[in-house]
Design a protein that fits this description.
Blueprint lengths: L4 H4 L8 H8 L1 H27 L3 E3 L2 E6 L2 E9 L8 E11 L1 H8 L15 E4 L1 H4 L6 E4 L4 H22 L3 H10 L1 H4 L5 H10 L3 H16 L2 E8 L5 E8 L2 H13 L5
Antiparallel strand pairs: 1-2, 2-3, 3-4, 4-5, 4-6, 7-8
Length: 260
């Protein structure tokens, strides 16, 4: 029996009174079907991929320790999912290192199962598989087996080579250099500085500290729009210095003896 056959293997003549009741309540039936489609894709396509490749699992988060980094992945469902009409979801992946997290937190950090949002490098798989932020969709008019096939292809073709090729901090230097337009914007300046210093790229780290310190000193302009009771819109423009930004860069400069 093929994918999702359990949902479609009952002939109309065999329908029970309970099934007929569901059929009269279209929204309920559609909700159950779409959720089952999503669960089945996870069970038969996504989870087996990570299990076969040695990842540990917690709900829909996956992690694998490789040398001095942890490779992370998660399935993110849209907060706007209706479940009655459609379910959309996307894939995030990242790389975690406890030393980098400890440097940024300014204390020892222990994380036995880091999630994608803990990673110092984070990105969407769609950036590589579709050259944009891609969301998969399960809907009444979309064959779920086709979605499953696309997911399997994307995991095998795009994610697997990334995780196979970049298994250490040292190798991630090549990843950032190779895909700078995709990766660098996802790194906060603090993570990037710590990464440079830990991978013996001290001149890059020094230049990044100086560059961001100068940026931190520039006032940031914020425009707030207020709607008055009579419907009039009034804009208020303010400028301020981000002191947290300045203090964080100063702390890293002190740590690595960079003169500001």
């Amino acid at each position: 029996m093929g994918l999702f056959s359990k949902l479609f293997g009952i002939k109309p003549a065999q329908k029970t009174a309970t099934e007929n009741k569901f059929q009269t309540d279209n929204s309920s039936m559609e909700t159950v079907d779409l959720k089952n489609h999503f669960d089945q894709i996870c069970k038969e396509t996504i989870i087996p991929f990570f299990k076969e490749n040695g990842f540990k699992k917690k709900t829909l988060h996956f992690a694998r320790q490789t040398n001095d980094i942890t490779q992370c992945f998660n399935v993110q469902k849209s907060q706007w999912n209706s479940y009655s009409n459609s379910i959309t979801f996307t894939f995030n992946f990242g790389f975690y290192n406890s030393d980098i997290s400890s440097i940024i937190a300014d204390k020892e950090v222990q994380n036995e199962f880091p999630k994608t949002y803990d990673c110092f490098i984070q990105n969407r798989l769609g950036t590589f598989s579709h050259k944009r932020d891609h969301w998969y969709t399960i809907a009444r008019n979309i064959d779920p087996s086709k979605t499953a096939e696309q997911i399997k292809t994307d995991l095998e073709t795009y994610l697997k080579p990334i995780f196979e090729n970049y298994t250490t901090l040292e190798k991630l230097k090549q990843f950032i250099d190779k895909d700078e337009k995709y990766i660098s914007p996802t790194l906060s300046p603090y993570y990037l500085i710590a990464f440079y210093m830990l991978t013996d790229q001290k001149e890059k780290g020094r230049k990044t500290i100086l560059e961001h310190y100068q940026n931190a000193l520039k006032p940031q302009t914020v425009t707030d729009t207020v709607v008055l009771p009579d419907g009039t819109r009034k804009e208020k423009v303010t400028s301020h210095i981000n002191q947290h930004y300045i203090d964080s860069i100063k702390k890293l400069a002190d740590r690595y003896e960079v003169k500001l």
